[in-house]
Amino acid sequence: MKCTTVRKGMECAFMTAKGCGYNGGVCFEIVEQCKGCGRTIEIRSGWYCSACPEPTNKWKNGNCNLATHVSSITSEKNQKINPIKASKRSRK
User: Fold this and answer.
1) 64: helix, coil or strand?
2) Which sequence spans correspond to the domains of the chain?
3) Largest Cα–Cα distance in the chain?
4) Element (H, E) at 40
5) Which of 16, 38, 52, 74 is at a distance of 20 to 30 A from 64, taking alpha carbons?
6) pLDDT for the residue numbered 65
7) Beta-carbon neighbour count of residue 88 at 10 Å?
8) Backbone angles phi, psi at 90, to 5 degrees
9) How far apart are the C-alpha atoms of 24 and 78, rounded to whole Å?
10) Dihedrals φ, ψ of 41, to 5°?
11) Reported pTM
12) Please, is 22 exposed, middle or buried when counting C-beta atoms within 10 Å of its C-beta (0-12, 13-18, 19+)?
């Protein structure tokens, strides 16, 4: 449904016929970590996330999983090689 509170006219998953069903009934502005994200939108009343109504909850336990400006770094672990199996492989 279309939002009738903060993001007027935009699609919102929390809107019902009775009004906003999110905790408190309003969307919250973005936090400092959200600056530079592709999901931020500017509305007359401020900057908001287009995917999440309360961005502080997304950043509480680390990086936001919806952030487009943060890349997840995966480190490759060196696998331990069994010396007995390695010696058998080298004989082939």
Assistant:
1) coil
2) 15-91
3) 74
4) strand 40-43
5) 16
6) 86
7) 10
8) -70, -25
9) 48
10) -130, 145
11) 0.65
12) middle
Q: How many CA atoms lie within 13 A of 10 on its CB side?
A: 15
First to last CA, the chain: 66
Give residue 9's Cα distance to chain centre: 23
At residue 68, the 3 state secondary structure works out as: coil
Q: What type of residue is 91?
A: R
Separation CA 8–CA 33 (nearest Å): 25
- Please give the structure tokens belonging to residue 27: 């969307």
Element (H, E) at 9: none
d(CA 62, CA 85): 40
User: Please, are residues 9 and 2 in contact by the beta-carbon 8 Å criterion?
Assistant: yes
pLDDT (tens digit per residue) in 13-39: 778 888 888 877 788 889 999 888 888
Q: How far is CA 14 from the centre of its chain?
A: 17
d(CA 38, CA 49): 9
